[in-house]
Amino acid sequence: LLSILLSSLGKDISKSTTKRMVINTWGGPFANATVAAFQALSQGGSALDAVESGCKYCEEHQCDTTVGFGNHPDTS
Fold first, then answer.
1. Which residues of 40-53 are buried (b: 16+ CB within 10 A; e: fewer)?
2. Which of 12, 17, 55, 71 sits most deeply, having the most CB atoms within 10 A of its CB?
3. What is the pLDDT of residues 23-58, one digit of tens each?
């Protein structure tokens, strides 16, 4: 997954001493949130910026019914 993210962003980190990584245990609609988080890191953001970007993506695009406006993440 990491190599796919790096190639999709056109980044060549093989010459860099700093390796950035975003790990997501959920697939499907959450994959784009992982990309948003990685882009935040690639643009010089902190780990917290990356987490915020990933969460914000799911809130805006409603990755599933557990986040976003009108949803209830704590109910079963």
1. bbbeebeeeebeeb
2. 55
3. 888 888 788 999 999 999 999 998 899 999 998 998
